[in-house]
């Protein structure tokens, strides 16, 4: 909990030594990571293996019950009915387990070493306590579980793109730019409902495609909720499709306290229109029920406020 480099190395090494490998994923109801989710991860990581889940509440140690070994022999027989040649485990219990299922213990241990540390001692509890510190040792499904997404949200000319680039540089991560700007630059003219739906879909697709390259934090210049606000401002409606798309873990709502600058793709120079758009932009976040923090000020003040909000976002 969760699978990490040690588990992956153990299973991949074991696969090379047998014709058929069964991986048993066991869990209890109060596990910090749900068992069915871990089972899904392991099946995705090892499609050539027989990956079996077990979620019954059973004794975890021989001292817990005189029936400990009969219970576990039954569990293993249900998962792997064929005769067992080898039993692979990274811990000493594998020796006793092998004796009880008539297999030969192969203590591969999933050893993963580098020049400085013996990572064989890497534990799931250490990963859960600080996933970011162990990021290179996590397979992609586990990274996706812990990755957090921060989206910049605000009316026109509130510095979203500038702030996204600054944050990405300071935090050493990637940011996904605004598809809508590219769309408007390529297709001059009024935006239709279909245009705006495509903008929302394309923005989400870009974010999904970029996520696995981003590390523990992914920054978005915008997302479909911002497109929903644009649709409401321009067309008087807020499509459900846009409101139902994937949400970021944290939104930074940029206050409209910067000067409005016409960059050739902006609409609302009139202060009344800008104020109305800002209200719609905030209303979308409120109606979506997402977590957001207000970010105001200029220059370093704005950047510092954004950094503080992100620092408060845990990936545990």
UniProtKB/TrEMBL annotation:
Protein name in UniProt: AAA family ATPase
Task: Note one Pfam family from the annotation.
Answer: AAA_28
Residues making up the signal peptide according to the UniProt record: none
**Segments forming domain NadR/Ttd14 AAA:** 150-302
What SUPFAM superfamilies does this protein's entry cite?
Nucleotidylyl transferase (SSF52374), P-loop containing nucleoside triphosphate hydrolases (SSF52540)
Q: Show the coiled coil region(s).
A: none
Q: Which domain of life is it from?
A: Bacteria
Stored Gene3D superfamilies: HUPs (3.40.50.620), P-loop containing nucleotide triphosphate hydrolases (3.40.50.300)
């Amino acid at each position: 909990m969760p699978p990490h480099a040690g588990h992956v190395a153990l299973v991949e090494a074991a696969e090379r030594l047998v014709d058929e490998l069964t991986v048993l994923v066991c869990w209890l109801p109060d596990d910090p990571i749900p068992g069915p989710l871990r089972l899904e991860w392991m099946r995705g990581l090892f499609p050539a293996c027989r990956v079996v889940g077990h979620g019954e509440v059973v004794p975890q140690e021989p001292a817990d019950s005189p029936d400990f070994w009969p219970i576990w022999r039954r569990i293993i027989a249900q998962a792997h009915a064929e005769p067992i040649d080898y039993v692979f485990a990274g811990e000493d219990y594998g020796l006793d387990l092998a004796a009880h299922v008539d297999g030969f213990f192969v203590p591969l241990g999933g050893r993963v070493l580098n020049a400085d540390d013996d990572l064989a001692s890497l534990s799931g509890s250490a990963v859960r306590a600080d996933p970011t510190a162990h990021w290179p040792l996590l397979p992609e499904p586990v990274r996706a579980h812990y990755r957090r997404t921060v989206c910049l949200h605000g009316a026109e000319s509130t510095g979203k793109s500038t702030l996204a680039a600054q944050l990405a540089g300071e935090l050493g991560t990637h940011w996904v730019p605004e598809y809508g700007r590219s769309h408007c630059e390529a297709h001059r003219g009024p935006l239709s409902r279909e245009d705006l739906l495509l903008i929302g879909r394309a923005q989400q697709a870009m974010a999904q495609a970029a996520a696995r390259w981003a590390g523990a934090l992914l920054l978005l210049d915008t997302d479909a909720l911002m497109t929903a606000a644009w649709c409401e401002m321009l067309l008087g409606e807020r499509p459900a499709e846009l409101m139902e798309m994937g949400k970021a873990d944290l939104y930074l709502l940029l206050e409209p306290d910067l000067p409005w600058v016409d960059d050739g793709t902006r609409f609302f120079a009139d202060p009344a229109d800008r104020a109305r758009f800002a209200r719609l932009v905030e209303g979308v976040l409120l109606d979506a029920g997402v977590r957001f923090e207000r970010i105001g000020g200029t220059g370093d003040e704005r950047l510092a406020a954004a950094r503080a909000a992100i620092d408060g976002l845990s990936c545990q």
